[in-house]
Amino acid sequence: MAKYGINEWESIGDSEDLNELLTDILKDRMSPYLHPDNFLITIEMERTDITIYDSNYVEVTYPNIMKFNEKADINNQPCHFIVNMIPPNVKNLVINYSYKPTISLLVNQSITNKRLETNISELILEIMNQQYPSSDFLMCNDIINIKSVNINELKSQKENNQVFLNREDIYNNSWAVIIGIDNYENLSNLDYAVADAEAVKNMLINKFDYPENNVKLLLNEEANKANIVNVISDVSLKAGENDRILVFYAGHGETMPLPEGGEMGYLVPIDGNQDNLFASAIPMDDLKRLSNMSKAKHMLFLVDACYGGLAAVGSRGLEPAKTPNYIEKITNIKSRQIITAGGKDEKVFEKSEWGHSAYTKNLLSALEDGYADSNGDGYITADELGDYLSEKVSIDSENQQTPQSRRLTSHEGEYIFFIDNQFIIENKSNKNNEKSFKLIIMKYDSNFMNPQEFPPIVSNNISTMINSAPNFIIEEPNIMDENILPKEFEEWNNLMEILYQLENASIGDSITTYWANDYYFRVFVQ
């Protein structure tokens, strides 16, 4: 039987085709009541559960795969519907994916009124009920968002691939919690964590227009466990459903193995004790729970600490080059994302000449100078930021640490930073259309879980990229070696054929493949 990890099961149930299908159904059914020229519709599918059955429809248990939200019966969740899929290369299995849709409707402002909005909502829910008769959508008004816009102007921008969204189009308000700890009571002190926190606070207020009253700063003695939890909780509850929250932490991080396997990552407050992390530190699970209880649209944790046990469900979201209307889509979808400074066996790298850690030094240049805007579109997504930090921090730390980017939920939205248009023009003029290739290698354990990520390899050509990979992972078989089997040559040639396809690819393209059953390769053209 083929091995599948959580990301593979998720990819089988990819919601992109389902989005398009349901969008087309709603457009068609609504057209007799609302002229197509007067509305635009987008749908976000939140996958809330996976249940796997054998050929006799008996539930099958797969460790760490089964339940995303621990709900006992996915067939009785309100405002959800079930889709059955059969995974490729796996016999006698059926997967039930549970989805909760969020339907966003942009209606021409010339015809919008409260009565029309009410009628449209009722119509959409009736269509959903007819399309999925086993679900009850009639009381699910919260899944519909209707907004009044100048539809002609918006469509004109879309037709010309020119949808310019500013902060007010995407967020109503911006919030931040900034934490920096140099002087620990029970652990070794740090040199620049407070300076890092203060620099990030100033950047958010002065560069990205975060309201100063919405930016909470906790330094040294203020950053005890109770204060950190209370402030993050307070901000999480105050934020509205169209707001964004950024949490920045500079301090110690620790990883503790769990009795039944796996591990838990902890942020260590000023009064934290390494000998009793459970009682004195803040586990990632707590941060995940705090983020889940918030109504905020987007939430990003920037953690300048090295630790494992991220309680994450995946590493990447939608791909810009393969997603029509990418910016519009990701800004309407929820997200809960985290970028840490490194893994559990790595140490935070600081230099006096920088006055910052390697992570924060590059975070500031990525955002203040716009260097993380890899496609020059004027927006920096959390995925772009994570890719930039992964590459630059690895270089600056002499490969002692590699930032990790993950998602805390299955939402595919993106936290967005808006940069100066002047930079966009300068940035594009300097790119001179050169492209490079970035190889990400991950290794899974025997259960195809707990991925280990290797430092990224970046090169201007495919051959150098392949030759730069560690020999213990990938090495061309020696044709003179009598012990080499013909199958090994065949596998090598297949891999080379896949990778060299990217020589003629465009910037923004990527490809994914597996090697030697244990390694997951992903190559990005940038």
Polypeptide structure, described:
With 526 residues, the protein is α+β, with helices and mostly antiparallel strands. The chain folds into three domains: 6-162; 168-430, Rossmann fold, CATH 3.40.50; 437-525, no CATH class. It is 30% helix and 25% strand. It contains 15 helices and 23 strands. It has helices at residues 6-12, 16-30, 114-131, 151-159, 167-170, 193-206, 225-238, 277-280, 284-293, 326-332, 358-368, 382-396, 421-430, 462-468, 486-500; strands at 39-54, 59-60, 81-85, 93-108, 144-149, 174-180, 215-219, 244-250, 253-257, 263-267, 282-283, 298-306, 335-342, 350-351, 356-357, 379-381, 404-407, 416-418, 437-443, 452-453, 457-459, 510-515, 519-525. A six-stranded mixed sheet has the order 7-6-8-12-13-17, sandwiched between helices. Strands 1, 2, 3, 4 and 5 form a five-stranded mixed sheet that branches. Strands 19, 20, 21, 22 and 23 form a five-stranded antiparallel sheet that branches. Helix 7 (225-238) packs parallel to helix 9 (284-293) and helix 11 packs across helix 12 (382-396). The protein is globular and about 65 Å long. The model is unreliable at 1-13, 62-75, 312-316 and 421-432 (pLDDT under 50).
